[in-house]
Structure formats: C-alpha cells, structure tokens
Amino acid sequence: MNAAPNTVQPPPGAAKKRHPGWRWLRRVAVGVFFIAVLALLVRQGRTIDWSEVLQAITELPRLTLLEAAAVAACSFALYSTYDLLGRHLTGHTLGTGTVMGVTFISYAFNLSLGSMVGGIAFRFRLYSRLGLQAATITRVLGISLVTNWSGYLLIAGLAYLLWPLGLPPDWKIDNTGVRVLGAVFIALAAGYVALCAWAHERSFQLRGHEVQPPRPRIAALQLAMGFANWALVACVIWLLLQGDVSYVRVLAVFLVSVMAGLVVRIPAGLGVLETVFVALLGADVGQGRLLAALLAYRGIYYLLPLALAAAAFLVTELRARRLRVQGETRQADPAAPASDQRFV
Question: pTM for this structure?
C-alpha cells in the first residue's frame, strides 16, 4: 500500500485535554511511587558490597567486553530493521540507511528515557522532518511495536513454559503460575499469526486509525525478528557473567525482569533489572559479580548507544536547520540548486 501524501499532522489525541485535578493527582501518585522505589533501592543498596562490585568490573576480561559489545551491536542492527517492515507495508520511499538511522536513534533513547520519549516522540520528530505524514509514522511505529512485543510473547512463553525458575517464596506467583503465563503468551503469539491469516485482506478502525493486518508470512517474520533480538539482548548479559549460569536461565530471568520493568514503569528499568537478577541468581553467582556484569551490560547496551544516538540526533538537527535555510533561499531565489533532503 502506498503511503499517503507527505503532510505532517499532529499526533492523534494531541488536542485532548485532561481535567487539572487528574493531572495534579497523577503527579502526586507518580511522586509517591518514585519515593517508594527510591526507598526500596536504598535499602537494597545497603546490603551490597560496592567495593566488591567495582573490583569485579575491573576484573572483567577485555575479550568478554568486546564479545558482549559485538552481540549488542548485532541486536541494535536487527532492531533497526524493524521499521523496514513498516516501509514495506506502508510503501513510503525513504532510503534503507535513513530508516535504520531513525530506528537506531529512537531505540537508544527509548531504552534510557522510556517509550513515550524515545520510541514515539523521536520517531515522530525525525520522520516528520523527512516528509512522512502522521498517519504513516503511526503505522510504522505500530508495526515496529508489534514486531518487538510479539517476539517477546513467543520467547518469554517458551522460556516460562520450558525453563521454570526457582522463584522466592514471598513472590505472588509460583512456577505453576509462570508456566500458565508462558502458555498464555504462546497462545497470544500464535493468535496474532492466525489473525493475520484470517484478516490480512481486511482493514479495521482503531481509535480513528486504519489497521490492516499483514500477511501471515510477514507476521511470522515479525515473530522471528523479535524473538531473535530478545535472545541477543540476553546473550549480552550471559557473556558478561562468563558462563557462571546457563544461557537459558539467564534468558528466563532477563525476560522476567522485562515484565517487572513494564509493571514498575521506571525509565531504563533502573534498579528493577538488578533487583530481579539478585533475587533469582544472587545465590548462584554472588552479588558482586552479578552486579558487575549488570553494570557492564548497562554501559554497553544503554550508555554507549545513547551517546552515539545523541551525536547522530545532533547531526540530524544541524542538517535539518541547514536544509531549512536552503529551502528559504530557494524560495527567495528559484534558480538556487536543490539539495538532498535525506539527512539521517
């Protein structure tokens, strides 16, 4: 399907206003929540020997760090292809490098600042500057989100079903509950492919947007891409743990931490990832070595890509300003030469 004309529209729902009382109540609730989380992290931090953590970080072999960085690069490269599926399904004509650049920048900011800022706001800003209209950007974003989370449902479902964890007794769910959750996740992933097989030639209206499910082979590709990316992210942590725990166990714990991060809704999952890993693997690895591996993981998978994405975003902003000036010059002087509009 071809993309609609390249006119930029405000994001859906932008004009909706909420009652001031609700905004005030939400701010209070968020503030109380963050105070509670901070208190929990401080209490947990007091039980950790931080000198042991720092020593464990310095003892990580360089080869291990390079291997982890290489796998992280593969993960980012794979994730950056998600929006290429969106290009295929919407029919817009942006170049492959441009699309992957936008996706990389958005993903890096998404990891550290949350989906509303990184995954959504950055995509809208960058793609709209490239000439895509809001409806097309929304479809591309939706396809990327489905690719990511359908893959999570499949891999987490298999992990929860096949490799149950020894959960702490004070948790509100036991291994039986985890297996049931795994079966539900697998059913949801399979249901998505079945829905696409049944309805790929139909379109639906969802909150004012037209939704057209892709063909089943595209849906299966989405599951495979998402599955592979989550497996690569877990592999980064496993490499940094240097084989102290089996890969499948690290994968299962990591996927549990992702779900916990979704519930807690802290940007970058700060403290959530570490808390879940310490609770489930601390007795096997030792808190010092475990936290050292997780801190190295955050440096490799969060901070380094964020620095690269920030530099890339700065370049795109400078180029966009230059193109705007050139456009104003062409309006004043139609004989002025045109320039390439691709700046990512």
Answer: 0.76
